[in-house]
Amino acid sequence: MDFETDSKVVVDSIYKGDGVSDFMAIIHDCRHLLMTNLANSDVKFIRRQTNNVAHSLAMEMLVSSYILIFHIV
User: Fold this and answer.
1) With b meaning 16 or more CB within 10 Å and e meaning fewer, what string describes 14-47?
2) What's the whole-model pTM score?
């Protein structure tokens, strides 16, 4: 399974990052999952232009979720 992200910092941290912070604690947990449960997986950096459709759909979902207001009478 391949994981794609448009954050180069995340990809670099997964492969060679080290440190002590909340961010690195999350990265450490991700590394552990990738090494144990998802041994055949890979994390790749993709530019936002190639991921534009998915990004646009995600942003529309966020915008539309704030617009919906339900009135119960």
Assistant:
1) beebeeeeeeeeebbebbeebeeeeeeeebeeee
2) 0.55
Amino acid at 14: I
Q: Where are the domains of the chain?
A: 2-48
- Is the CB of residue 2 less than 8 Å from the CB of residue 42? yes
pLDDT tens digits, 27-56 = 999 888 888 888 888 888 887 665 677 777
CA angle 65, 66, 69 (to 5 degrees): 95
Residue 6: which of 72, 71, 56 has the closest Cα?
56
Q: Are 44 and 3 in contact (CB under 8 A)?
A: yes
The pair phi, psi for residue 72, each rounded to 5°, is -105, 125
Q: Give pLDDT, residue 20.
A: 85
